[in-house]
Specification:
By secondary structure, this protein is α+β, with helices and mostly antiparallel strands. Helices cover 28% and strands 37% of the residues. The chain contains 5 helices and 7 strands. A 7-stranded antiparallel beta sheet has the order 1-7-6-5-4-3-2, covered by helices on one side. A hairpin with a 4-residue loop joins strand 3 and strand 4. Helix 2 packs across helix 5. The chain starts with a helix and ends with a helix.
């Protein structure tokens, strides 16, 4: 394995940013509503919501069924209405495994915003998830941003 491949494989924080032609509040609403997540998930990993409502605060938990029929409890660890939301997934009924999904929405004007999507697995403790974490790329995050932009344009 080359040094470049090793460095890439060990990049534990991956991020993508995109400007979206939609109001920040419209975009944030799509992110904060777990029922909408399968529509914009660029990893094609989410099948449906199992339980939970629109996220409103740190400490909220929502559960999603993945496409391989596992349930993930997502523990909200950061929340600023209209601007920032982050959650740490866990196997159903377990503590979070140490990786985190972060969404930041910055209004540019009334009809446009900049959205940054970050996956951070620096604290991942579950070795069975390392290969999947390592394979999560900026392109995958960008795919979620692109789908989110399409949905926001229809809103």
């Amino acid at each position: 394995m080359s040094t470049e491949e090793t460095d890439h494989a060990e990049q534990r924080v991956v991020s993508a940013t995109r400007e979206i032609d939609a109001p920040a509040d419209v975009v944030f609403e799509l992110i904060a509503d777990p029922a909408r997540q399968p529509e914009w998930d660029g990893n094609d990993n989410l099948a449906e919501i199992v339980r939970g409502d629109r996220v409103r605060a740190v400490g909220d938990v929502f559960s999603m069924r993945t496409t391989n029929d596992k349930v993930r409890d997502n523990h909200v660890v950061a929340f600023e209405e209209g601007r920032r939301i982050a959650w740490r997934p866990a196997s159903e009924g377990q503590d979070p495994a140490g990786h985190e999904w972060v969404w930041e929405v910055e209004p540019l004007d009334e009809d446009r915003c900049r959205v940054t999507h970050t996956y951070d697995w620096t604290g991942l403790t579950d070795e069975s998830r390392t290969a999947r974490a390592r394979s999560t790329s900026a392109d995958m995050l960008r795919a979620s941003l692109d789908r989110l932009a399409e949905l926001a344009a229809q809103a």
